[in-house]
Design goal:
Strand content: 15-25%
Structural class: alpha/beta
Number of strands: 6
Order of helices and strands: EHEHEHHEHEEH
Oligomer: single chain
Helix content: 40-55%
Number of helices: 6
């Protein structure tokens, strides 16, 4: 399957991006084709409804990857009980044709214990874009974030965190596969 992931942080060492990279690793190990769009590495222009950004290379690659995707992962840090501005900007560039009937896994990293507000916001956006929210979501916070700091290898991820991430990613991939088969 083709999975497109958007890592929506504007920070080089974001734990949400490192978590997205780990999800990419897990999905690739299962034989899936994954496109990870890191908004820190490939920033997008500010959204404008007058289509002023037509032809922007990074934006066109994002749109193409989203159209080809059978499943989508959105990852964000939680800032002030919300998703990052760069992720919201990226989502504003997209429409229902990018999300319609595709399973979307929402992922967040928070300085506190959990990141429920940003996950809820992502699920609302996905619903309005006619995507299908994965029943599971993934939030890391507090000490759990240490597993995804720079320099930590995948083998050093805390076993409880690793088990949860693997379970949620497995559930997402299973649902995506089931839905992709029914749509063919």
């Amino acid at each position: 399957m083709k999975i497109t992931m958007i890592a929506g942080s504007n920070q080089r060492s974001a734990t949400s991006t490192r978590l997205a990279e780990y999800i990419e690793h897990l999905a690739t190990q299962e034989g899936h084709q994954v496109t990870l769009i890191d908004l820190y590495q490939t920033p997008l222009p500010f959204y404008s409804p007058d289509n002023a950004n037509a032809g922007h290379e990074a934006l066109e690659k994002l749109k193409e990857a989203m159209l080809e995707a059978e499943g989508i992962v959105l990852a964000t840090p939680e800032y002030h009980s919300g998703i990052s501005g760069v992720l919201k900007n990226a989502l504003d560039h997209l429409g229902q044709d990018h999300f319609n009937n595709k399973v979307v896994l929402s992922v967040s990293s928070a300085g506190g214990a959990v990141a429920v507000s940003s996950l809820t916001q992502m699920q609302t956006i996905v619903r309005n874009l006619h995507g299908i929210n994965c029943p599971d979501w993934l939030s890391i916070g507090g000490d759990q974030r240490k597993s995804f700091q720079t320099g930590v290898t995948y083998q050093d991820i805390h076993p409880d965190v690793d088990k949860r991430v693997r379970r949620v990613v497995g559930s997402f991939l299973k649902l995506t596969k089931q839905l992709a088969v029914k749509l063919v």
